[in-house]
Amino acid sequence: MLEKDIERILVDQDEIIEISKRLGKQITEDYQNKKPLIIGLLNGCLPFLAELIKHIDLYCEYELMSVQSYHGGTKSVGNVKITKDLDISVENRHVIIAEDIVDTGRTINVVKDLLLYRGAASVEVVTLLDKPAGRVEPFIPKYIGVTIPKLFVVGFGLDYEGFYRNTPYVGILKESVYNKD
Ligand code: PRP
Ligand code: MN
Ligand code: MG
């Protein structure tokens, strides 16, 4: 049903699992004895976070924060809001922020700076998708699943007006869905 709104699948379910295994293994190697704290940024992070953590073989914790910049549409409005903060301290913790996508770089810069300000020992980023062509602020995530061109994608956590987050793949949304003229 949802697939009728999808122009083309960009990253399918099997690829997402393979990517998560690769990144999970890399994180496992890099964070030996560090007991990392993985912080997922809701809402988009959820499916990727759930897949990724299965492949991290370490003592680690995960916590969630809600951060919004798009307010439902196809463009980031550049106003990053923390709508649900963490309940725990990040002081002296090795933090890994988990994201579905890094686009303009605004969300990730705001959150990274905040966590460092709060005393995190280190802050790195793992993202399923990286869209470097969308950057308005420089940012290079340490762990990247796939680099994608400047297209509006939905699925596996990524939404358009709140929908499509529940697909098992990432796809390009048909222009006719958001361009109503
Ligand atoms: C989306 C996405 C990232 C962020 C990336 O979240 O999930 O968190 O935007 O964009 P940026 O690099 O331009 O900041 P959104 O604000 O749409 O909230 P959501 O996760 O609840 O969909
Ligand atoms: Mn998000
Ligand atoms: Mg969104």
Automatic annotation (TrEMBL):
- Name the top EC class: transferase
For this protein, what reaction is catalysed? GMP + diphosphate = guanine + 5-phospho-alpha-D-ribose 1-diphosphate; IMP + diphosphate = hypoxanthine + 5-phospho-alpha-D-ribose 1-diphosphate
Coiled coil spans: none
Q: Which CDD domains match?
A: PRTases_typeI
Question: What pathway, per the record?
Answer: Purine metabolism; IMP biosynthesis via salvage pathway; IMP from hypoxanthine: step 1/1; Purine metabolism; GMP biosynthesis via salvage pathway; GMP from guanine: step 1/1
**Carries keyword Thylakoid?**
no
Top-rank taxon, per record: Bacteria
In its UniProt record, a GO molecular function of this protein is: guanine phosphoribosyltransferase activity
Query: Does the record's keyword annotation contain Transmembrane?
Result: no
Where does the Phosphoribosyltransferase domain lie?
12-160
Cofactors named for this entry: Mg(2+)
Which key words are in the record? Cytoplasm, Glycosyltransferase, Magnesium, Metal-binding, Nucleotide-binding, Purine salvage, Transferase
One GO term (biological process):
IMP salvage
Location within or outside the cell = Cytoplasm
State which Enzyme Commission number(s) the record gives: 2.4.2.8
Give the GO cellular component terms, alphabetically. cytosol
Q: Which Gene3D superfamilies match?
A: 3.40.50.2020
NCBIfam families per UniProt: HGPRTase
Family note:
Belongs to the purine/pyrimidine phosphoribosyltransferase family.
Protein's UniProt name: Hypoxanthine phosphoribosyltransferase
Its source organism is Hujiaoplasma nucleasis
